[in-house]
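**Protein of interest**
===
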Amino acid sequence: MRIFLKIAYDGTNYHGFQCQNNANSVQDTVNAALSDLFKKEMKTIGASRTDTGVHAHGNVAVFDVDTRIEPSRIAFAVNARLPMDIRIVESRRVPDDFHPRYTTTIKTYSYHILNRTHPDPLFRNLETHCYYPLDEKAMNEAASFLVGEHDFLSFCAAGNSSATTIRTIYSAEVARTGDRLTFTITGNGFLYNMVRIIAGTLMEVGQGFYPPSHMREIIEARDRKAAGPTALAKGLVLERIEYPDLTSSDDKCMMTKN
């Protein structure tokens, strides 16, 4: 049977989610825990290849196994074998042909910025520090231009392997709580470093380098040089991955919810 895992992790100590030949990754660590549990080599299929230092509340992976362990109890058994910075927060059975990457998805990311004179040592690995004043209203207005179907080539880093750079963004918002700003974006998919480049661009808007409406011109340029810098990885969190076409039925199908 195929088991669905919803995985949360602090990505600070890992070279991204995907398995690496010469570096430790989140997926390698989860595979090792599963192999120890089931006493044979286990390999997962991941949904999102988050980069080094990027975090997640709800990344997704699946694996196949023949076991008498109740699917919902697998999370507990695997967590007992994982380091504290990785946790399986949900495990359930899904159809044997379900693939976490080749199924219609809705992904939500958040980017976290501390906007004050000095950084916070307790959250140093979880947010980007910016000591220049940021205008969150201007940033939020700029983010609104991202909503809809666009060619996001301007926000795509070199090395992207996607067949197309067209994506649909359902929502994009910037909100402030005290000294902290959170940029949240939801779409049907994202290009390589897309969210981090958008975050870096929004921070330039927030500093007054150009008006919010310039975001439209950046999109239309279809040129990476038109956008701002790539924001640091540590501020990025994969919040959730939803599968709209996957509905609950006899505990064999499920939809992810954060």
In short: Residues 249-258 have pLDDT under 50 and may be disordered. The first strand starts at residue 2 and ends at 9. The chain is about 20% helix and 30% strand. Residues 149 and 159 are 22 Å apart (CA to CA).
